[in-house]
Amino acid sequence: MKKARRKNRRSRHYLDLGNRYRVGSPPGVLEPHPEAAPTVIRRMVYDAEGFSEERFEKSIPKNKLSREANRVLWLDVVGLGSAEALKHIVTTFNLHALAVEDVLHQRQRPKAEVYGDTLFIVVRIPHLNEGSTTFEQVSMFLGRDFVLTFQEEEGDCFDSVRERVRRRQGRVRHGGADYLAYAILDSAIDQYLPLADSMGDRIDEMEREILSKSDSSVVQRLLDLRGDLNHLRRNLTPARDAVAAMASIAGTLVSDETKIYLRDCQDHIVQLNEVTESYGDTVSALVSIHLSLASQRLNEVMKVLTVFAALFMPLSFIAGVYGMNFDPDASPYNMPELGWAYGYPLVLVVMAVLAGSLVLYFRRRGWLGGPP
Question: Which residue blocks in 191-255 are alpha helix, DSSP H?
Fold first, then answer.
């Protein structure tokens, strides 16, 4: 039920984009969508020695928004339905109004923008639901000692990052907020890998179906798959640019060591982009192959019908001649062979020989199968 609700909500985000904007409203107005999910806030604070984790619903106490010296604060806001909780966060961390607008108004393209001493990042996470692909926006703010993430729905791909924080695995507990932002981005980009594999499997399946026997539904499925691939590329290409912008940002907001990891993440996106482009070319080629095979099958059918028409054309001519009702008693020139004892068998033999000669001729020309 939760997956179905998430799928329907994401679909509405594409169809009802205009309902999310009030024409003439100033940027940064905190007006959550009436159908937005209730707000749940996860708070994690950690350093190399330890961590603490708390969960709040609808609102968070102001003292829980304060940062601790030499510790990283991660606030994960799930659900954008509570204007009060969002207002407290926006005010406490002094978030720019334009960035807040992009958080509330979903369907932003992936990007990375600097607002003062805060880096605003948008990334889209793919979800595969019953063969169709949808994308969920995750907005993130990176400061010197904090990371804020905003999501619309419960259920994300960041549990592995949380477990690394809890279990002190990898470098996340020893890195700063910038490394946490990288880990979140890397986890989001990794969600494209199973989607790309699934699309590759769909392409292989449809290729086998086309080469064996295909129907008109294959074309529609190929076009749907090409649309999914185009949508995937439209999200991967700006994500690559956003990660590249993070890796080249000046100042101390992103350390040089973290930039190395960001360049590796950028390389993964480039590889994914190349794979999706290759898949797109393959799908276009499969569409052409399907149309060529369909045309070939039609030509085969037309060839068979033409051969049958050519076979029966002389036979029909003979039958038509002897079907004329001329009276042989009225004139000796009116089909005298009609009175012959073997006239009818003779005509049948002539028709059979003529048909057999045509079949032999067509076969030697290769029109009835076999080499010409």
Answer: 192-212, 216-247
